[in-house]
Design brief:
This protein has helices at residues 3-44, 59-73, 101-105, and strands at residues 80-83, 86-87, 93-94, 97-100. The protein is mainly alpha-helical. The protein has a domain at 32-105. The chain has a two-stranded antiparallel sheet with strand order 1-4. A two-stranded antiparallel sheet has the order 2-3. The N and C termini lie far apart (44 Å).
Length: 112
């Protein structure tokens, strides 16, 4: 096999691996979405709602953080985690904030 052919086969294999990883990530995202929403909606109860989004400040940062964490670790976070700073729709900085996952997750489990 020529060097060009080997490179083409290697590139195709790498692309196949990236595609498989993307498909797996999307599968996990769909599998865990309802659980993530349940946790974040529970966290949001009693928090002031922003007019611009209809959700509390930090809602989408928490959702994204939780999704990324669960997909990467295939488990729910435990203890206190600090959500990163964010920006609102007017590009104003929103401060970081702590989330105690033990208190907001309770007896919720991940689907298998």
């Amino acid at each position: 096999m020529s060097a060009v052919s080997k490179k083409t086969v290697s590139s195709a294999a790498a692309m196949g691996k990236e595609e498989q990883e993307s498909l797996e990530r999307n599968r996990k995202r769909a599998l865990y979405q309802a659980t993530i929403e349940q946790i974040v909606e529970g966290w949001a109860v009693g928090k002031p709602i922003l007019e611009s989004t209809g959700k509390p400040s930090g809602y989408y940062r928490l959702t994204n953080y939780l999704r990324q964490y669960i997909i990467e670790h295939e488990s729910l976070p435990k203890g206190i985690h600090t959500m990163p700073e964010g920006r609102d729709s007017f590009n104003n900085i929103e401060p970081s904030f702590p989330v105690d996952f033990n208190s907001i997750i309770g007896d919720i489990t991940l689907p298998e």
